[in-house]
Amino acid sequence: MSLAVSVLLLRRVVAPVRWLAETMRSVDPLEPGRRLVVPGSDAEVDALATAFNEMLDRLEYERRESARTALAAQEQERLRIARELHDEVGQVLTGVMLELDQEPEAREAVRRSLEDVRRIARELRPEALDHLGLQSALRSLCISTAAHADLRVVPEIDLAGVEPSEEVELAVYRVAQESLTNVARYAGATQVVVSLQAVDGGLRLVVRDDGRGLGPDGQDGAGITGMRERALLVGGRLTVTSVAERGTEVRFDVPRPEGPG
After folding, report:
1. How many domains does the chain divide into?
2. What percent of the chain has pLDDT over 90?
């Protein structure tokens, strides 16, 4: 009898520790906010859970700040390269084209190269986003994608009074850009719908194609991890669903910003 009682007591002591260990293993850096709650635990286990939760708070904060710094540096580098392409390479190609009045084929080749340089510069740092806002920038992105890929791109864009921050606008634009790039390169799709709508004071971006769907490793490839990082930085959530031969949907939800106080 005493052995059975001892075993029962040991199970009651060990059970919270096992729960703690299992929960620790399930923590996903790309799914922040989860914290340990161990039911029926004693003071020592509670202290361990509290220390672990505090460590998660620090790690998530530092990860967000590091990612924000890295992405800001990346955007500055994109801007620098875009300006150099536009101002320096573009000017050189324009000058060469003007010198080729008597060489129509060479002139046409240079003209196409100049268009490519300007397009790459726009993709690196979209002027429409800086000057006209997110909705116009997304429409321009859809037109550009359709023009350079054998693909029908359907924009459905209406924010209905929602005014996202510059950080949110950039995150949404980059997620849409990466999604469209993936569709054009890998999906084998004939049509993609780009929807941006106001939802409960926040916004929702959906990029949905009719292509072949993602492969078995698609959830972690094709820039999806980077898109998840961008979503986290603005408090949003990115989900990807895919069905073989029926297409892929990327959805990016950004909640209503919290008011002061």
Report:
1. 2
2. 25
Q: Which of 125, 151, 175 is the last residue of a domain?
A: 125
Structure tokens at 169: 């606008």
Q: Is 139 exposed, middle or buried, given 0-12, 13-18 or 19+ CB atoms closer than 10 A?
A: middle
Are 194 and 214 contained in the same domain? yes
Determine what percent of the chain is predicted with pLDDT higher than 70: 69
pLDDT value, residue 261: 41
**DSSP state, 35?**
-
Distance (Å, whole) CA 208 – CA 191: 8
Q: Which residue type sits at 185?
A: R
User: Are residues 221 and 118 part of one domain?
Assistant: no
Q: What is the pLDDT of residue 221?
A: 59
Question: DSSP character for 125?
Answer: S
> Residue 12 has what pLDDT?
57
